[in-house]
Design a protein that fits this description.
2 domains, three-stranded mixed sheet, Rossmann fold
Length: 356
């Protein structure tokens, strides 16, 4: 690791999403629907102390179709880890409720699903006494901002010391730390859209700032319960939302897909007799790096990739009249492309890696 990234490094994260919100807003109910796991749900704050963790498959109709074509023995979908994290309360940044544990668990995730309560059930306690979605949203984001401000302020003295040695990298890091501090003090979330020059600094990327994580708001109630002011606030934050009554929901694959999308991820596919599988990569990944997701040696010894869109492969298989004819027929029709090291892998590409 180079010196420029050593100031306040936090360990890298897994493909994971934190389910966050105030107590008793439906977080554990959402987690149960997503993962089909039995979790402790109770009508009082902090029923969830340690985060429940569930691995959730990303729905993908392509896998079943390709598996049928290839007569695969098994299907392995892409997955996302969901963390059901203890409820947040006002003052969490100073340790109120389970604040320290809550904020530490969020740091380990890559994105956040913020559950906001819209439903008004007097039998279910609201920690603030009344249901007010806009206020709850502000409480959550304020706590995230205050914790990030603390993180940034702790890093400044060391960065100042490094900058005095004449290090240009340290000076640049110090400059963006001060900019981040100023933005947070104004109440801003640090988004890539507005603060890319700050967040793209190597040193800043190691801080895993909470407000820099992608957010998706799940409004627990009906679309009619969500007023224009609330929706406008969410959009002003550069976030997306879904309105859903979790009390009656049984299947929410749309949330899983949306959560996968906000992480800026796609899937490329492999298929054969042994397995049909979705491999997770970032948008913009080139062929050698994508090959490395399958096996590190594939990246080191990459020669080329044979690539075809999944739909075109299936069309070739159908025209052949047999599953086995899919790849052969696709080659005969000129649908299989030979791509080199500069090829950017696309969502839905079916790939065969050729390596030394």
């Amino acid at each position: 690791m180079t010196a420029r990234a050593e100031y306040c490094i936090i360990k890298s994260m897994k493909l994971s999403i934190g389910i966050v919100g105030l107590p008793n807003v439906g977080k554990s109910t959402l987690f149960k629907i997503l993962t089909r796991q039995e979790v402790h749900i109770a009508n009082y704050p902090f029923a969830t102390i340690d985060p429940n963790v569930g691995v959730v498959e990303v729905p993908d109709e392509r896998l079943e179709k390709l598996s049928t074509m290839s007569k695969s023995k098994k299907i392995i979908p892409a997955v996302v880890e969901f963390y059901d994290i203890a409820g947040l309360v006002k003052g969490a940044n100073t340790g109120e409720g389970l604040g320290n544990q809550f904020l530490a668990h969020i740091r380990e995730t890559q994105a956040i699903v913020v559950v906001i309560r819209l439903f008004g059930n007097s039998e279910i306690v609201h920690v603030e006494g009344t249901v007010d979605a806009a206020r709850d949203l502000e409480i959550i984001n304020t706590e995230l901002i205050l914790r990030d401000l603390e993180t940034v302020e702790k890093c400044i003295p060391k960065a100042e010391s490094e900058a005095r040695t004449g290090s240009k990298e340290a000076a640049q890091f110090l400059s963006v730390l001060r900019e981040a501090k100023s933005a947070l003090e104004k109440g801003d979330l640090l988004s890539l859209e507005k603060h890319s020059h700050i967040l793209q600094n190597v040193g800043m990327s190691g801080l895993s700032l909470l407000t820099a994580k992608k957010q998706l708001y799940l409004l627990n109630g009906t679309e009619e319960d969500a007023n224009e002011a609330l929706i406008g606030k969410i959009k002003s934050l550069g976030a997306d939302y879904l309105a859903m009554d979790l009390a009656s929901a049984t299947e929410i694959s749309g949330l899983i897909k949306k959560s996968y999308e906000i992480l800026d991820l796609i899937s490329f596919l492999t298929t054969g007799e042994d397995e049909t599988r979705a491999w997770t990569i970032k948008k913009g990944t080139k062929a050698p790096e994508a090959a490395g997701v399958i096996h590190t040696d594939f990246e080191k010894k990459f020669i080329r990739a044979e690539v075809v869109n999944w739909q075109k492969l299936l069309e070739a298989a159908h025209s052949a009249g047999s599953g086995q004819g899919g790849w052969v027929q696709a080659k005969q029709k000129g649908l299989i492309r030979l791509e080199g090291k500069d090829y950017v892998v696309q969502d839905g590409d079916v790939v065969v890696i050729r390596h030394g």
